[in-house]
Automatic annotation (TrEMBL):
The keyword Phosphoprotein does not apply. It is a multi-pass membrane protein. Its main location: membrane. It comes from the Bacteria. It is found in: Cell membrane. This is PTS system mannose-specific transporter subunit IIC. GO terms for cellular component: plasma membrane. Keywords: Cell membrane, Membrane, Phosphotransferase system, Sugar transport, Transmembrane, Transmembrane helix, Transport.
């Protein structure tokens, strides 16, 4: 792996750590982090596949009350690095990296607790600076706290990058077949559950036609329509949906109190 690739991976990991708190640009999401790391390492396809699989798993992770969800940023970045260092970009290698992500995400909670414990002292320092009117000290406290969040992800990723590739390959190859097969089965189940969660959240009569069209198009062989063609069809469908939505809004006279939350249904019921 080149020096530029290592620097880019560390930068992506740092941004993922920051965005795990800021939640602005979604760098911590598996689909984004794994794709960017795969792109930096010259394996964008494998990064997308790993990120997509982890994204379905992360759909069920949420902070509820005092319970903190597993660290999705560390899971995404570390799993991508493990896959790259292992050198196996097949479905088996992606599945093994996915299986490694879960314990790494749980282990990341320990780092989160350490950083948040340190942040308590930083907050008290910022309060004292605010009382004395030292605004720059308050700003420095915020920046330092964010720096710790970035280092929380960068340091474990840097340790993984420092490991020789041969060591990582030997460790991954030592995994017994029954465990790797179990990871494959579990990964398939997670994807199915992820799809079910998405359908449960989005299943309305206004989007079901698009789901049906998408599944039909996906069944067409690659020799007849490429992924780029499917993407263009998706863009066209999105434009059609936006146009219909705008038409429904204008037909209601711009009154938000009229009609329903189903613009396509409103149009169909007018006929």
């Amino acid at each position: 792996m080149s020096v530029i690739s290592i620097i880019l991976i560390l930068l992506i990991s740092f941004l993922a750590g920051l965005d795990g708190i800021l939640d602005q640009f979604q760098f911590h999401q598996p689909l984004v982090a794994c794709t960017l790391i795969g792109l930096a390492a010259g394996q964008p396809a494998a990064g997308i596949m790993l990120g997509g699989t982890l994204q379905f798993l992360a759909l069920g992770w949420a902070n509820i009350g005092a319970a903190v969800a597993p660290d999705v940023a560390l899971a995404s970045t570390a799993a991508a690095v493990v896959m790259i260092k292992g050198g196996d970009f097949s479905q088996k290698g992606i599945t093994i990296a996915y299986g490694v992500a879960v314990p790494l995400a749980i282990a990341g909670l320990a780092l989160t607790m350490v950083v948040r414990a340190v942040s308590i002292g930083i907050v008290h320092g910022a309060d004292a600076a605010a009382k004395s009117g030292n605004i720059r000290a308050v700003e420095r406290s915020h920046y330092f706290a964010l720096l710790l969040q970035g280092l929380r992800i960068v340091l474990p990723v840097a340790l993984l990058l420092a490991l020789p590739a041969d060591h990582v390959k030997s460790i991954l190859e030592a995994i017994p077949s029954w465990l790797s097969d179990g990871m494959t089965i579990g990964g398939g189940m997670v994807v199915a559950v992820g799809y079910a969660m998405i359908l449960n959240m989005m299943a309305t009569r206004e989007v079901w036609p698009f789901f049906i069209i998408g599944f039909v198009l996906a069944a067409i062989p690659d020799t007849q329509i490429t992924l780029f063609g499917l993407g263009m069809v998706g863009v066209a469908l999105a434009m059609i949906y936006i146009a219909i939505t705008n038409q429904a809004g204008s037909s209601n006279g711009g009154d938000a109190n009229t009609g329903s939350d189903d613009p396509i249904g409103d149009i169909l019921e007018d006929y």
